[in-house]
Amino acid sequence: ETTESKNFIEQEIDKDLREGVYDHVCTRFPPEPNGYLHIGHAKSILLNYGLAKKYNGEFHMRFDDTNPTKERMEFVESIKEDIKWLGADWEDHLYFASDYFEQMYECAVKLIKKGKAYVCDLTPDEIREYRGTLTEPGKESPYRNRSVEENLELFENMKNGVYKDGEKVLRAKIDMASPNINMRDPILYRVAHMTHHNTGDKWCIYPMYDFAHPIEDAVEKITHSICTLEFEDHRPLYDWVVRECEFDHGPRQIEFAKLYLTNVVTGKRYIKKLVEEGIVDGWDDPRLVSIAALRRRGFTPESIKMFVDLCGVSKAQSSVDYAMLEYCIREDLKLKRPRMMAVLDPVKLVIDNYPEGEVEYLEADNNLENPELGKRKVPFCRELYIEREDFMEEPPKKYFRLFPGNEVRLMNAYFVTCTGCEKDEDGNVTVVHCTYDPETKCGSGFTGRKVKGTIHWVPAPYAVEAKVRLYENLIDEEKGVYNKEDGSLNLNPNSLQTRKCFVEPNFQGAKAYDSFQFVRQGYFCVDARDSRPDALVFNRIVSLKSSFKL
Ligand code: ATP
Ligand code: MG
Ligand code: MG
């Protein structure tokens, strides 16, 4: 812990504690329940939760549900599930911003009474026009100088449903000439005759994010309100709201750069389209990077934590390679999961000198690098399946697997020497033949000779048929994410490949989310939606080969 360097947020927190600005740390994760969480949100969750843990503070889970248009209860549940899965424990600190509507209303009344807010009748278009630009100051609204009494009455009318949507708004009275456009009399409240999932029809006015958020933070006594960079320009307004509403506790906003993955789609709009067009099979399709999708693909919370830690926290916008996420899951599963045999593209291997009808049960290590995972027995017999690419009739140089005359090791079993093959009319290999040497049994201590190739196999009569799904990026990486002409996504037509395969009988009983290494093929996870005990479906989480270097 002592040698570990601190990120800039931790340095700011240390400073605040040292200077007595705060005597404790309280962070929050405030999602809007309008969609599924993705890997970017995981960064924010683990960052906020991690800081609370590190400083012995509190972590609040708060649904920022102040905008009834897009919010749904369905998302509240999925967000909770994802955050729990990631291991961020909010204990009894679960909040809904809509529970503070009354307090927000009172804050607005207070601002009106102080002459700091007014009811404005300009249309949305006019408000935009009056706001000015980066180079031009804004123009004051003709309603800006209404009396406190008039404003109080009009605001109460707004609340009581006297006006239609868009007819009137409440605005902060700050400075129409401010170089920061966010400070040019921003809107605090709007009229919206809508049913809210939590408060029903109680309210027909709803607070804007820039007004609501600082109040939520102040009410909960959040100390460090961590958000992404696009809110940096809103910080003066955040501070203005906290100050003018006269909270005795002032939270502090700190911004960091969003997490972006190169050539990966995270935008809700795009994913929604992919779901609706049936290109992916839902928000948790294993090719997506929603937390639900990563979980279904077979990522673990530990791998995501490792990834987020490796990414670090900074103010500089950057994009991270997906290969880094793959590196993290390989590292996490390497010692934790059994390494078993599965043949993804099978061709039959017949051992002609092995007695017909006989079977022996060979012992195999579950994970050579981790003896704690124990051993298992694999049936071995005359007819096996091997990978089609592990045999070549006419091999190129440096091919050490099966070809006529060559001897290889069958993993966990014997040495076999290839004697030839059978082919169909089209020249496709249908059966490979070999003989085995009983002296060379694995574990017998045989040292008589060495072979260069080792291949895996499954016993044909005992193998279990299953389905595997092999994935590539949804996006055609050569072309980049978006089509230059129409802004649509450049999709990779090969992002999903489904295959029939054979796995060793020890996979029987594998349950949803169980994951394994298929030797030489990668890490695979039992699909939580489509797998059945008698029809297993595996998703490839990641192959074994890495393009990522730390
Ligand atoms: P999206 O539109 O991608 O869902 P959002 O900002 O609308 O993102 P919110 O529900 O408002 O989603 O986000 C909750 C929290 O997650 C916010 O504090 C936000 O800053 C943070 N967050 C969102 N996207 C990222 C990201 N890519 N990297 C880090 N934090 C993020
Ligand atoms: Mg969101
Ligand atoms: Mg948002």
Tell me the layout of helices and strands:
Elements: H1 8-18, E1 26-29, H2 39-54, E2 58-63, H3 73-86, E3 94-96, H4 101-113, E4 117-120, H5 124-130, H6 148-159, E5 169-172, E6 187-191, E7 205-207, H7 209-219, E8 224-228, H8 235-244, E9 252-256, E10 259-261, H9 268-276, H10 291-297, H11 301-311, E11 318-320, H12 322-333, E12 339-340, E13 342-343, E14 346-351, E15 359-365, E16 375-381, E17 383-387, E18 407-410, E19 415-423, E20 429-437, E21 454-455, E22 458-459, E23 464-471, E24 496-503, E25 515-518, E26 522-526, E27 537-542
Parallel strand pairs: 1-2, 2-3, 8-9, 10-11, 12-25, 14-20, 18-21, 23-27
Antiparallel strand pairs: 4-5, 5-6, 6-7, 13-24, 14-17, 15-16, 17-22, 18-19, 19-20, 23-24, 25-26, 26-27
Helix pairs in contact: 7-8, 11-12
The structure holds adenosine-5'-triphosphate and magnesium ion (2 copies).
EC number: 6.1.1.18
Family: Belongs to the class-I aminoacyl-tRNA synthetase family.
Catalytic activity: tRNA(Gln) + L-glutamine + ATP = L-glutaminyl-tRNA(Gln) + AMP + diphosphate
Structure report:
This protein has 550 residues and is of the alpha/beta class. The protein has 2 domains: 8-256, Rossmann fold (3-Layer(aba) Sandwich); 339-542, Ribosomal Protein L25, Chain P (Beta Barrel). It is 24% helix and 24% strand. It is built from 12 helices and 27 strands. It has helices at 8-18, 39-54, 73-86, 101-113, 124-130, 148-159, 209-219, 235-244, 268-276, 291-297, 301-311, 322-333, and strands at 26-29, 58-63, 94-96, 117-120, 169-172, 187-191, 205-207, 224-228, 252-256, 259-261, 318-320, 339-340, 342-343, 346-351, 359-365, 375-381, 383-387, 407-410, 415-423, 429-437, 454-455, 458-459, 464-471, 496-503, 515-518, 522-526, 537-542. The strands form 7 sheets. It has a 7-stranded mixed β-sheet. A 7-stranded mixed β-sheet has the order 21-18-19-20-14-17-22, with no helix packed on it. The protein has a 4-stranded antiparallel β-sheet with strand order 4-5-6-7. Strand 18 (407-410) and strand 19 form a beta hairpin. Helix 7 (209-219) packs across helix 8 (235-244) and helix 11 packs across helix 12. The longest helix has 16 residues, at 39-54. The radius of gyration is 31 Å and the shape is elongated. The model has no long low-confidence stretch (mean pLDDT 96). It binds adenosine-5'-triphosphate and magnesium ion (2 copies). Adenosine-5'-triphosphate binds at residues 30-32, 35, 40-41, 43-44, 227-228, 258-259, 266, 268.
